[in-house]
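Exercise 7. Predict the structure of Cyclopropane-fatty-acyl-phospholipid synthase from Pseudonocardia cypriaca.
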Amino acid sequence: MQVAEIISDVLGQDVPIRIVAYDGSKAGPDGSDVALKILTPRALARLATAPGTLGLARAYVTGEIEVDGDVYDVLNAMADLTLHDLSRKEQVALARKLFPVWLRHRQPPPEFEYRPPGRLHSKARDSKAISHHYDVSNRFYEWVLGPSMAYTCAVFATEDSTLEEAQAAKFELVAQKLALRPGMRLLDVGCGWGGMVMHAAAEHGVKALGVTLSRNQAEWAQAEIERRGLSDLAEVRHLDYRDAPEEQFDAISSIGLTEHIGKANLPSYFGALYRRLRPEGRLLNHSITQPRTPLTRKLDPFIARYVFPDGQLEPVGDIISAMNDTGFEIRHEENLREHYALTLTEWCRNLEEHWEEAVAEVGLGRARVWRLYMAASRLGFERDNIQLHQVLGVKLGDRARSGFPLRGW
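Solution. The predicted structure, encoded as tokens:
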């Protein structure tokens, strides 16, 4: 059987892109502007052991499959065909068909495919999982994220807003929801490179502490705090949120941490944040979510093994229920799904503009991982396969006082 026909079996017979294979076979419309090029039988060996998206991803990041055109355009064209992996019956049939190729060309998964050891969501394992993704290279992230070094969804006033404007607007939106004022104390858990901490200190006179499990992030953030002259107000520590100071803060922001917690740990997670808040203190939880209750809790296997080991996404209703059951009164909820698609569009553009430098810094395979995952994530937000929600809660004071005005945040 010709190689292009085999790939069509994986993607579907009505695949809307060109498929060009090393044996000279072709499939799909000749007039398509984008194509998948199957360069070596090793790509088929990948599909034999991992039919569907994981096998295709392995072949792409190792250079055994090449994309002719923009990766996003290819994924967008295939979106309706590849949103779900093959059925078990289809996987078995494909594996049998490819067994002879696998015998001759089998190989281990790429070296940067990672599953952290230890008990799920223990402090040691969480540290390894976070380090795998965030301790890649600060310089690499500077090229992708831009000057803000914000690795979370921005907030665009218009589609013409720059990424830096949108990231500043995101931090200010969080600050307004938390009603930050001079002299207040803010705890930012999972603080990344310290963007929220520095914004709170510089723009609102807040004494802000950020904690992150990434040593690279903490070192970069602390150096930037000193460079900006914010050391009197801002600090970032290399620390698990569970080990953050027990003193009562006036506000807590969690921007992009909940995805790493796991459903079973949501009660203890929100409980830890609740204990650290003073009465009438506010929590803003900003996280990627499932658009509906999933049949399975597993992430896409490519994302789980290459990008966010141990990551888990929950429906926003589960997050709200967990916050509410912990004791928070929910005051506001907002879906920023389209904003994250725009954010990822800018990150993808940054990566392409710095492609040669990025490859030199982290290697071709890892750069391909980021190119693929960011393009796929952009498509996921556009197609409502994932969402981004901000949920604002308050720890009620005496006689259920919230400290909220009658209108507004």
